Structure formats: structure tokens, C-alpha cells
Here is the input.
Amino acid sequence: MFKVTIGALRAACEETTETIEERLKKIPGVLRDRFRFFGSSAPIMKVPLDIMVDDIFPYLPLEDILSLRRVNKCLYLLTHQPIIWRRFLLRMDFPIPPLRPTFEYSLPLTDYEIEQLVTQAITVDDNWRSPNPKIYNRRLLNGFHKINDLCLLPGGKYLVASVMDMGCEGWYWIYLYVLDSPWGPRPVARIQTFSMAYNIQAKYVKLRPSEDGILIAYTRRFNKKRYVKSGVASKTSHEQHVDENFRYNVVTVYAKLDDFEFLTAPNMNPESGTYSFVLDNIDKPFLELGIADTSYEVTQSSIFEANGRTYMAMIAQPAEMHFINVLDKTEHSCCIFREHTSWPTSPYRLRAFRVYPNQNDMIVIRSVTPSPGVEHHLIEWYELPLYKGVVRLTAKARYTLQNKKVRRFVISDFGTPNQTKLNPSHPDLRHTHGPPPPVSIFLEREDPEGVEHHAIYPHQQLVPEAPGKPAHYKYVYNHDSYQMATHICGPNRAKILPGSTRALICMMDGQDASDTPQMVSLRRYVHPKNAGIHYEPDPPRGEEENNAFPVLARKPRLPMPKTGVFRTFFEAQDTVDEVNAAGGLRAICWDESTGRICLASEGSNDIRILDCSHMVMPDARRDEIQRKLEYVDEITPPPPPKEKVVEGEGEGNVGAKAEAMTGSESSDMDSSSESDVPTDVETPRSMSDNDMEVD
Here is the structure.
């Protein structure tokens, strides 16, 4: 019998351009014969597969699908069919991880990701609301070099790292790693930076109409004579105070995403000759777009899109903010902010900023020192600069935090995932119809050590019905802030990795002032219950959405906690101990949408990957499904020989031939009797090219 391998299936489906509906019609062709000869007397095994997929599964919650998966190997294969999980994806009423621009919703090569998106969204949400958060999976990735900084792209598939080659003094690189690949996590590309890169920012962008890519911004510094003095410009921490004069660069680097998607495709074995051939003939992946040079210290940079353009923005201390179009360097604005009327002559310094999602407005945090030892913090709302050159901005609104000692401000940059389609093939998801997530501001306080959280929720505005458009709501950020929670953590100090509705807090030893401090624990933070604004439900968009069945049998989701919004990941304590034993924490990052955490230590080249959502590793799923397919192939009988009727033969000869064929079938079925086979079973067909459907 022809043996169907996963490699053959992937190769066959890679060339197909069938729509989802066409593939749905062919699903029975994959498992029909296998179901008919499974030998089970269970009534469900006699139901036609198209009835199961079209008329039964759409009404089942996710828990029932997973229960069916445990019944037998045939149902295991059937419940992995992507069309089932695509329907769950469309019914999801809470956020899923952001879809990459190159994620082709209808193509077979992304089939294995559909179920992962659904399970990640559900489990990370439940895990962060749970009073006992846990780690679902942990892995080690060899970074090959000493890690300086880390940044995960939205969705957690790609990791950007700043590394230092310890074997060659002064060799610094930006590495791009793929974490979710059937062949395991590995490096994909790199570019030299000539000095240590820090403050890494990375986003998916569309710089050109027909091209998707990854835009990376990082900061580096040099001695003004461009001479990297040992022990000064090569300090392991850019935060360490030095007396020498430096020049600061913010560098923007671009890479086409299609190249990486091709190299990390499920059917691209990195150990194959094809992979080596592609690497030898592919263009250099990274293109340096520009360098912003300044003698002022750069403390933050950001990438955002506004008015159809992509910008890089940065803070140049103490009081300048620059906006630069990454494709047109002449479009450059230098912003100066007007003084508060209460402190017109006091010194100011910029602390943090963030552009509001889908608005031409931004939030800016400044600190003013009216007298020694006293510092006030202004949380202000500004319009984005519309002109080139030097622009003096006046705040539209503000509120003030009086005399608080704040080590660092961080603002979430989650945006509005999946609301703006990055690819025309992306589906219209239900969770994008409601209010976008808030913009969260976190304060790392000192004296006493602690965490303070403020959130800016969008306001709901009714848009009346218009010809051809039903009434609906739109959402606008109006700079109305709510103080959500305060947590005192002394004598330890907190390092916050912000998120819009949840955050990761890395507790550090408060007495350790080194560049790589000892960790105490990892904690999760989630918004408290009944916080923020109450929204009216959006009207359903179409009859299908109005009648959609819930994804989960249990409703509602796990409630937001009223208390205990800070909880420790006790299952991560062994990882914390490993990092401490290797010299302390050197770099950490996380992705809010998937709950993925990446850590690097001082004395090791390994990157520790912790997943706080449930997912089956693509390599493990490939091997598991392969074993199931091999088993089902073993129990499937060979096809019967084709019956040939010769002219002139009588009925008796035909009957004799049919009897011989029946006897052959019985022997191949391991002595199963005629009564064991359902009466409505058709003669099995040989598996032709048309039967090669993708699981």
C-alpha cells in the first residue's frame, strides 16, 4: 500500500491553491476508508465524516473536541483537521495572539498554527487570572554568544537578541532566532552592530505596498573619537555611569519577512541540502535604513505607524524628542515641550512616551524638579508633530503625580492586535469588534520599593446609523487615567515588563546593585476586577455572529481577581535558581499575547524559554501525528484489484470473481467475520493523488 508521509503531504499541499471550502469538501477523502475499516461498532464511527465536520463539530465546545481526540486514533486525526480550528478561531470573543503579516490563513503551510493560536489565547488568559499561575513548557536555546538584550516580536515566533562574541573583542551582533519551528528553535540571520546594541525595539511593518518586513531599532554608543575604549564603551550595562563623552546612535534595520518565512517553513529541513543551497544564494537579509546620531543620551526609542508612514521616535535627554520617517530622512521633527505654568524655570527631563494606537496623539511623561530632593511627574497628552524642523508643543491635557520617587516609567505598547488586517487573507475576528485594550503606565517606585499601575481606557462613542452602515461604536483615547493598583515589594525591587491588561514583574535583590543582579522570583500582574470603564456591548455584525456558539462550555471566563492581582510563578523558581547560579540576570523579555518569557544569564550563552500558555511544540506534534498515521496505515486493508469484465463471460464467472475478491478481503482483515463489517461499507479505493489531503 502507498505510504503517506508527513513530508509528502506537506509537499503536496504546498502547491495547492484550494480555498477552505474546497478543502472542506475533500476532508472525507482523507479518512473515509480508514473509518470504514476501523472495526469499531460505536455508532459515531459510522457517521459520515462530512456530517461530523459540517453538522456536529460546529456546535461542540472546545472541551468536547479535545475529549473526542482521546477516543481513538482515527478521531485523533480528525480533530486535528484545520477547518475545525479555523471555526473556533472565528468564534473567539477574546484576544488571540497577533497574526503575522505573512500568516496565510487559507494556506496549508500554516495549518499547524491554527490550533496553537486558539489554545494559546485561552490558556494564557486563564493562567494570568488563576491564583496559581504555572509554566506549561520550558526550553533551552543556545545563543552561541553572550546575550546583552532581548526582544520578542508580537506573537512570540521570532526573537531578536543583541549578542557579544567573547572570542573576538569588539564583535557585536544582532541575531534573529525562530522559536516556533518544527525543527526546533535556531538562529536564522544576523547583522554586525560594531558596538553593544541595547534598547531593542522590533515590529512587523509594511514599508512597501507589496512587501512585509521586520523593522528593528536599537541604540548604541561610541566614544566621540570613535575609539572604543576598553572598559568604557564596552561596559556590559549601558546604564552604568561613565565620565567620558559619548555619541549615541539609534540605528534602524529592515529585513524582508518572506525570506525568514521561507527559511522557517515546516517543510524546510535546516539540515538538508536545499536549505544550504538557499542560504548560499539568498540576498543579505538585513538592510540598514538609517542612523540617527546625537551627543545627547538616548533613553528610549520606539517604532510606530501614523498617516500611512512608519516612524522611529527617540528621547534625547534631557528635553528633546525626535520623530524621523524611516524612508525619508528629510521628514524629521524635533519636539520641545512647553513648561508647566507652576514651574516655568525649573529643570525638566523626559522619562517615557508612547503613541496612542490608531490616533495622532501621544502620551508623554516628564519629571520636573522645583527644588533639590523634590520631583513631580507630569503625565501629558500631546498631538503628534505635523511639521518638519523644530516644533514647540503644548499639552492638550495632563495630570500630576506629586513628589514621588520613581526609578523608571514604562508604558505598554500592545496596540490593537488584529484590528487592522496586515494581510487581506486574515479573517474578520470577533474580538476585534469590541473596545481596544487600555494603555498601561507602570511606575517602578523607590523609597519605598514598589510598583504602581495606571491605565488609560478608550472612551466609547456611538456612531449613528448611516446609509449602508449600521450603528456601531468607535473608541477614542481621551487621556482619562485610572490608578489600578499599588504594590510595595521592599526590600526587593521590581523590574516591570509592561502589558496592556497584564504584566510580568521580575523581582530582584534590592541590595544587589551590579549589572547582572540576582533574581528573587517571577510574578504575574493582572488588572483587578471591576476596574476601568464599563462598556455597552457592541451590536452583532451579521446574523452569523449573533448566533455563534461559545468556544468554551464554561462561561464566563475565569473572573478577574478582586485581590491577589500579584502572584508568583512558583514553577519558575528552578529557572530563577539556574539564572542566579550562572551569575545573575543579564536580559529578559516577554510577549503579552502568548505569555512567552525569555531570559539570559551572565555566565551562560543559553536563552531560557518559558511558555505560560499551552502549546504543543511543532516538532513534537509532527512526530506524534506521524506515528498515528503509520498506525492507521497498518490497520487499513490494501485496495482490492480492479474488476475487469471480459466480453462474453456469463454471470457465473462474474460471481466467481466476486467471491474470490471477498475471500481475499477477509484474509487481509485478520480473520474478521462478515458480521463485523457494517453493511453500508463501500469497497475501499486505492489512495490516489486526489486523496492526499492535509491534516
